[in-house]
Every structure is written in structure tokens, then in C-alpha cells.
From TrEMBL, chains A, B, C, D:
Protein family per UniProt: Belongs to the tRNA(His) guanylyltransferase family.
Organism this protein belongs to: Henosepilachna vigintioctopunctata
UniProt-recorded name of the protein: tRNA(His) guanylyltransferase
Reported function: Adds a GMP to the 5'-end of tRNA(His) after transcription and RNase P cleavage. This step is essential for proper recognition of the tRNA and for the fidelity of protein synthesis. Also functions as a guanyl-nucleotide exchange factor/GEF for the MFN1 and MFN2 mitofusins thereby regulating mitochondrial fusion. By regulating both mitochondrial dynamics and bioenergetic function, it contributes to cell survival following oxidative stress.
UniProt EC number: 2.7.7.79
Subunit structure: Homotetramer. Interacts with MFN1 and MFN2; functions as a guanyl-nucleotide exchange factor/GEF for MFN2 and also probably MFN1.
The protein's required cofactors: Mg(2+)
Keywords: GTP-binding, Magnesium, Metal-binding, Nucleotide-binding, Nucleotidyltransferase, Transferase, tRNA processing
Cofactor-binding details, from the entry: Binds 2 magnesium ions per subunit.
GO MF term (any one): tRNA guanylyltransferase activity
Thg1 C-terminal domain ranges (all copies): 138-222
Length: 289, 289, 289, 289
């Protein structure tokens, strides 16, 4: 078999090594999820099952790729941030991007039943991915802030839109017209005066999206630490988040990626209240303890 | 919300428009499928369920992306060839590569049960992808020949290896040692003299892999044409294949991608014998007619 | 000296290997040559000294880099076409582009005095460069046609513009206004009716630019062949040029790049009439024989 | 003229926008300068005329491109560092690289006579260029340190080699053998014990190369400031250089690129001793005042 005769075609592949010493972001984004969410009757404006499934899939990716130090998800997109000094796959961008995207996709289908129960998956959902480099800590913070600001803008719009449609009885087109040209303050006002809704009291997971961090936390009534991937739903645009979780941007090569977190509110609130969305590294998915 | 303040980060994304007028290949490749196949007890040396699932997933990709004119799969990899003149996603390489990879992955999990029945999927399988350009028809033919030659070399090795292990009672290490340094002729001889196996009589899908083409075929006893994606398991290194399916490399913009195929052996053999692996564009999967 | 401590910075350099089996074009283009030509009082609309200097510099580049099979120049730009199969500098695009650009620039300054005689060079002229790939013969022909069409359009404009200014006494702004919105036919008419000029009788070097080819030609009254780089000023958009010089696109690896040319008109016309612009590989510049 | 028919070829050009917020280095490097220096009988181990010509050419480049904040040259190479936030040529890498390379080359030929006087330039010298990104201040400092360490290693070798050849009477091959496997300390010892030369007393321009900075300096006996490009020949690996010239890495958008420098030793030493190598922005070359 004249194998060697054809092997020259391998030389047509391009090298795609990423610039060293830059934060690497891989963002996956649902393909036609507007249609997909209608087909599967997602709740509007937000479907907790869908968000939990997105988060579960992202956790799977973080479990597999330890060089991801933080992830941020909203709606049908998720961003994964890899350490500046990662040498994973020799920093070949195609490999990094396609593995993360494929594992995320695979997990989305794999875990579907766990969240959507009797709702049958009707067709294979899929995602595109892009890979972007950010040279400085300021840049990567601004990137994450950009996505969280996007989450806010979209969620405020969607919350008002669906209030007008579901509670207000407007058609989709009427609701769209009503909101055309409005500012944030206008939408807040519509929600408050017409639907008795204070937007700021909406669930934080809707308004802030989900941040995934690695932590070592103490289980309640136990001496032992446990490595978990913790979902947070809070502001990451201000300084407070980065002061509290200062390890994210300052992690050193060879260091344990999981950090003690002794903040009582985190330990208590997250572990107790959000326990279903705490993900244990070992046991795949930690159901309510 | 100071959205605009952060939006500058979008400018860090890179343009990745592919050179026009080149064949585009996207090849997806299983991540650690050796381990994955063991965990799910794939039959050795080839598991028909796994091959059918790969083919089914590839068909799903071809159904979605009409600019794929031919696909070729073997083992845990699949190559998709897009028309030279495709303008899909404005020829942005990241988009093309990640959509195809993600849809393939998603389909693999989605259709798993259809082929593996009671065998439960234990973890989300995933795939990397690469994208490569080939300027000429000769280059793209050589690319496909390269993969088919690879299929042959691997399958001959695996067939002999597993014969030695399963039928010959050797341990994996003993079989590996036995085959170390052998030529194709040696392996053929081992199969023939020791296991009474003529390698050339092994199923063509194992020896040649699977070629997916778009065809309009006449259903038996019907006047109507039907657009299908046809799986072929034959040699594509020689001239014969390309003479028979000359449309693959000569398709014109705006042309119907499906070509009449009146070759009786194709109509008969493929439709009758391989019918379960003929895929109908409309009805997702066409089970035995 | 802790050399190794710093050497890691080399890893930040990017690989830039060009796709194999494509025609490679390097186009150099004068930086602010409008201003440069005014400063050095170039004749309008065309300065033969400047064109000859451009051609001489391009010949120097072709002498140095044998994988250039054809070059085309007009105004302050020059395009160099390298064989599809060239392995020069391992097809690293930066190397190819910057060497050609730098040698062209260097030659322009080096040979200045030879053409501009007593006109002193007042400041260092310089050029940018770009590198572009063309997969097929049709693409590379279209590329060259594009540049020659550009030459025609610009030269017809400039010829008319400067006729209006120099012979017609219009100011630059008046001439510009006069030509605004005119078609080729209008400009031809202005030249003919107002300045008694038949544009088609203008020198071909102005209307067609300069094509550089490698040829082996017989010197008049001699038995010996000589390798020269021949400047042609003729149409390359039509078929005739490519039929006459069919070797350009069909050169094979290892072949002598210089082709016998027995066309009597070429031998006679070029060697006798344009002799000053025939360039001998060995003796740098072959002055009138 | 069917111009539009061909214009599609422009779409084959690639976008090459550089990642924002990174230091940009363009390094030009002489092509076959070993041979070129022999042909023009450069003095060994260093030829002051050649170094001055390199520096003069680099100054020309810095005069033209204000976003270059520092340049470093040694032997036949020069590195230009552009501000992290430069938007020059819309950060298109090809443009930046080829303009700098071409202007440097052009200047080298243009100013040749000024330094080499009666020594005629025999052939056009030329340079390649590469462009590299460095995300952090530490990286760009390490890059410059890498080049200065290279300067030291090469110069110590060359100084010893040519001492052995010119003063010691060894042939080139004998000198090469003698130095094979030696350490820095060995070469220092050879110079000291055999040629009565203390390497540390060699001219700093040879041992440290040339750093070009923009400064506003007070002319002796004058109240006026003057913007100049100052050549320094000192260590830039240690902290001292960067403390003294802290503006280089901290320049802000819109700021005047020239900084007051009141260090008396600089004003005095540079202006008085090295005066011929101080370059005045306006008057091209400021000869001894």
C-alpha cells in the first residue's frame, strides 16, 4: 500500500500555536437556540432546567481541563478561561477550542435527561466555539464584565418582553414594538408599575449569570475539605468579586488549583441553599446531600 | 450599565477567513477512543454498532451542511469535504470547524441508543477537529486516499492482532510482539495459515471504511427519484471510483447536489443489501424498507 | 551571561508557512510616491527613467530569486509570482515577502543614479509588500489581468489629466473636475479631439505596463543562446500571451527556468529596439549592445 | 475594460491584524552580511562605519514612525519596539513590518556614502524582517535582554577570534579550533594574557550594542530644549536602565513621546563625546556642534 505517496497531504495542515503568556478564552455558543428552545418548550424568559444543564456541562469541561480557572455562562453561551501559562495541547488553538466545544456539546446531550426528565430531546443541539487571547488581567476582567453586562441587558429585555406577552397579553410583535427604543429605566418602570415586579428581586442566576470557580470547602459538620466547582451568581464587574477570589488571576504554575474558602456565607449559602448546583469533582454530580 | 466600556474586548477576536477556491476538509477524531471503546466493550477488531453510529452522525452533518460533497470515515474519525466555492459562514474557519465538530459529537450521543440499544453510555464521548485546505482536485483525492490507506493499514493490523488474541489465545503483549516488524504480506499469511482467514474476504466496510455521497436514486419498483446519502465501502484510491462518481469533484455553483445514479449494482446492492445504512434526507433515518 | 534565561522569548515568534501548491504573489507598492515623484520632478504622466528604474530593480529581484517565474510592474508597484511548488525559505511567508521587498527597495536606491543621472535622490524611498496565495492557474492569470486592467484605467486617466493640465492649461482642480464621472470613451475622445492624440498610439510600456519573463534567446548573428530576463509590454489578459509563453504556468520542478524563444519578432524587436531594457543575468545590466 | 471581472482576486488577501495591547517588535536582519562585510572590507571585529550606518538608518525609521519607543541594534540587526497601544496602519502586521524593513533598507543605501566615504557600494544590501508580539513589560524587557546577551556573546567571541587571527597570526580555522568549547572566562583570559586586552575596556558600543531613545535635552549653554533620538551604549538587562528611563514602558496615549532628561552625565557625555551620533529630529543628521 503506497501510504507514503499520499502522506504529503499532512503538510497542508497549519500550525496554530497561540501566543504565550496570554489568557485564553474559549466561548461556546448555541446554534439556533431560539428555535431549539421553542421546540422543547423552554420556560420564558428563563428555564432553570436549561440553565442547570448548561452549568452541568460546563462543570464537566472544567473537571476535564484543570487549566480552566474560571468559567462564565449565560443564556446559551459559556466562556472558559484558561491560565495564561497553560501548555495544554502545546497551546494549539484548534485542539483547545474543539475539545472544549465537543465535550461541552456531548455533556449537554448526555445530561439532558437528568434535568429535562420526561421532556424528550428531539434533535441534536450544537454549539460553535471561538478562541480569543487577552494579554492582561484588566483585559480578561473586561471580557468577563462584557459578558455579564450582556447577560443583564438581555435578561432585562427578556423579562420585560415576556411579562408583556405572558402576563400582559400582548402579541410578540406588539411587545417588541412596545420595547423598541426604551432604556433600562423604562423597562424597570414597566415591570414595576405594570407587573408589580422589582427587577432587582429577580433570581440572581437570571440577572448575573453563572460563575464557576474551583474551591476547597469544608462540609458542614465535618473536618474534611472537599474540592468542588462552585457556581456563583453575583456581580463580577466590581472590585469586590476579584478581591474575594483573588486567586483566580494570580494562580501560579504547579499550584493546587483549588483554594480554601472560609467565607461563611459562601460555605453556608452555597452548600446549603444551592447545594444541587454544587459539583463534586469525584462523584460526577453531587445530588442534594 | 456601561456596556460600551467593555465592548472593546471584541476587537481581540481574530479574523480567520479561509483562502478562496480551495477544497476544505474538516476531520473529526475521537478523544481517547481506545479507552472509550474498552469501557463500552466494543467488539474487536471492529464493532458494527460503533461504525454505524459514526456513519449516522456523519449523515446528520451532511444533511445539515449541503456544501459537504463527500465524507469519509474509518475507525473513530470522519473527514468532511466542502465544495471549493462554498461561502458557508463566509468561509470563517472557526465557525465551519466547530459547527461540524459539535453537530457530529451531539449526534453521536443522540443516536447512541439507536445502535447500542441496552448498552448504556457511561460518559460523554468527544472529538477534536482540524480544518485543512487543498488547492487542487489531485490534492483532495490524495487526502482521501491517505485516509483510506490508513484505514487499510490499521485494519489489517487490528484484524491480525485480535485473531491472535481472541482465536489464538495470545496475550495482548504477545500479539504485539508477534506483529512487531511484520509486513502486510506477513499479516495476510498469519491470517490465512493460522486462522483460515482470507483478509480480502473481510467485510468491505472494515477494509475500505465508509464513503458518503449524495445521490438521487430510483427506489425499486417505483418511478420516483429520492435524494439520499449513500454509504459506499469501496476503493477510492484508483480511477474507477472517480470516473463513476465524477460529479463529486465537478459540482457547479447553484447545481443540485444530488446526482442521478443509474448504476444497477449501486441501486440494487446498496438499496437492497445495505438498506439499513441508506439515509434519507427527509425522514432522518430510513430503517429497512 | 544568563543567555538561556531570556531565550524563551523566541517562542513568541509565529510560524507562517504558506499553504503548499498555490501560486505565491508578492506585490511591492511605493509609499507616498505621489509626493516622492513631485519632489523629484518626475515627468507627467509617465517618467521613463522611473519606469526603467522600477524594472531594473525588479530584474535584480528575479536574478536573485529564481523561483519567480513572472513579474508585472506598473506605476510604483511590482508583482512577483513564485512557482506553485517553490520551497524557498521553506515557504515561510515573512521571509519571502521581506527579502523580496528589501532587495527591491535596496536596488531602487542603488540603481537610482544610473537612470536619474544628475537628479539627486533627496530622501530614502520605500515600499510596503503583501503576500497573497492563488490556488489555480486561472486565479493567477486573473490576478495579473487585474493589475494590467488597473494600469490601463490609471494611465488613461493620467494621460488625459496631464494633457488637460500641461497642454490645455487647466489647473489640477479644473482637470479633475473635467474628468469627474467620465468613461473611458470620453477620455479617449478628449485626447483625440482636443489634443490630437490617439491613446492607442501611446507607448505600450505606459498602456500595458511591464511583464518580465525569463528567456533563452539567440543573439543576432550568433549561434549562442543567452539567458536573459526580457521585458515585454503587451496584453496579458487575452489568450495570446499565455499561448505564446505557455511555459510560465507549466514549469516543472528541476527544469531550467529559461525557455528558448524563437519568435523572430521577439528576438528582433526586443533585442534591437528595446535593447537597453534587456537584462543579462550575468552582467547586471546590459547596456545597448 | 472588464475591471470588475478580475477584482475578485483581492478577496484572496489575508487579514493580519495584530492582537491589541501587546508590545510589537519588528526585527530586521542583514541577508548574508558575512559575505557583504567581506566584499566591502569591513574592519574586524567591528567596523564603526558600519555600526554608525546601521544606527543612522534606525534613527530614520524612528523619525518616521513615532510609535517606536525604543530600538536596539547590534551587528547587522536592529529591533524596533512599538507602543502596546499603537494603532499605526490599523495594526496590520504586514504593513508595519514591510514599511519598517523597507525604510531601514533604503536608508542603509541612501546614507552609505556618508559613512563609508570613498568605499563604493558594490551591490544592493538587503534585510529580512519578522514581527513578534510580547504581552507584558517583563516579556519585552526579556526580549531586549536576549538581544543584548546575544551581542555580548558574539562580540566576546569575535574580539578574541580576530585578536588570534590579526595579532596572533593564526589562520581562521586555527582560531576557530582554539576557541571551540571555550567559556567566556577562557576568552577573557586569552585576551588578557596573550593580547594584553581587558575586554571590559573595549568600547561600549561593541560590548553593549546601541539603544535608541527619544529625549528632550538641553543643549549646553542654552535655555532651549531639543527633541533628539539619543544613542546609548549601556546595560539594559539590569534594573538601572529601566529606572532611569522609566518613561519607555509607561508612555501614555497622546503623550509627547520625548522626555526631559536632566541627567548631567547624559547631557554631557552623550552630547559632548558622542555628539556625532546624536540625531536631531529636524535636521536629519546633526554633525558635531
Amino acid at each position: 500500500m503506497a501510504k507514503s505517496k499520499f502522506e504529503y497531504v499532512k503538510s497542508f495542515e497549519t500550525e496554530d500555536k497561540l501566543l504565550p503568556n496570554c489568557w485564553i478564552v474559549v466561548r461556546v455558543d448555541g446554534k439556533s437556540f431560539h428555535k431549539f428552545s421553542e421546540k422543547h418548550e423552554f420556560q420564558k424568559p428563563n428555564d432553570m432546567r436549561a440553565l442547570d444543564l448548561m452549568n452541568r456541562s460546563a462543570v464537566k469541561v472544567m473537571e476535564q481541563y484543570k487549566d480552566i480557572v474560571i468559567a462564565y455562562g449565560e443564556s446559551d453561551e459559556y466562556s472558559f478561561v484558561l491560565r495564561k501559562d497553560t501548555e495544554i495541547f502545546n497551546r494549539r488553538g484548534f485542539k483547545i477550542m474543539t475539545y472544549i466545544n465537543s465535550l461541552f456539546t456531548s455533556s449537554y446531550v448526555f445530561y439532558w435527561k437528568q434535568y429535562f426528565k420526561e421532556v424528550k430531546l428531539k434533535s441534536p443541539p450544537y454549539f460553535d466555539a471561538r478562541i480569543v487571547l487577552y494579554p492582561t488581567d484588566e483585559n480578561i476582567r473586561d471580557y468577563l464584565s462584557w459578558r455579564q453586562a450582556d447577560c443583564h441587558v438581555n435578561n432585562l429585555y427578556n423579562t420585560t418582553f415576556w411579562a408583556l406577552v405572558i402576563k400582559g397579553g400582548l402579541s410578540n410583535i406588539e411587545a417588541e414594538k412596545r420595547l423598541c427604543g426604551t432604556f433600562s429605566s423604562d423597562k424597570n418602570e414597566i415591570l414595576f408599575s405594570e407587573f408589580n415586579t422589582n427587577y432587582n428581586n429577580e433570581p440572581e442566576i437570571f440577572r448575573k449569570g453563572t460563575i464557576l470557580l474551583r474551591k476547597r470547602i469544608k462540609k458542614p459538620n465535618s473536618e474534611h475539605f472537599k474540592r468542588v466547582i462552585v457556581p456563583l451568581h453575583e456581580d463580577l464587574i466590581g472590585e469586590k468579586f476579584w478581591n474575594t477570589h483573588s486567586e483566580v488571576l494570580s494562580i501560579k504554575p504547579g499550584q493546587d488549583y483549588y483554594f480554601n474558602d472560609t467565607l461563611p456565607d459562601l460555605v453556608k449559602c452555597q452548600l446549603c441553599i444551592n447545594t444541587k448546583r454544587n459539583y463534586d469533582e469525584k462523584n460526577n454530580l453531587k445530588e442534594a446531600e
